[in-house]
């Protein structure tokens, strides 16, 4: 299953493409597809929202400077 972040990013890209084209039919189709992706993403949980900072690694000991 595709994640919420992925679907939202794809919808955003489609809207960006829709804004840059001069073809109104293509723009309408891109906007419609972006809306479809957004409706798929809305009910999904925000899995990437974790209370820990993203740079925190679990089960990792202190790094050995000699290994660098």
How would you explain this protein's 3D organization?
By secondary structure, the protein is mainly alpha-helical. 51% of the residues lie in helices and 0% in strands. The longest helix has 18 residues, at 24-41.
SSE topology:
Layout: H1 4-20, H2 24-41
Helix pairs in contact: 1-2
Concise overview:
The chain is mostly helical. It has helices at residues 4-20, 24-41. 9% of the residues are buried.
Helical residue percent band = 40-55%
What profile does the largest beta sheet have? none
- First-last Cα distance: 38 Å
Specify the overall morphology: elongated
User: Which band does the percent of strand residues land in?
Assistant: under 5%
Computed over alpha carbons, the radius of gyration is: 19 Å
State the total count of DSSP E strands. Answer: 0
Query: How do the helices and strands follow one another from N- to C-terminus?
Result: HH
Tags for this model:
single chain, 68 residues, mainly alpha, 2 helices
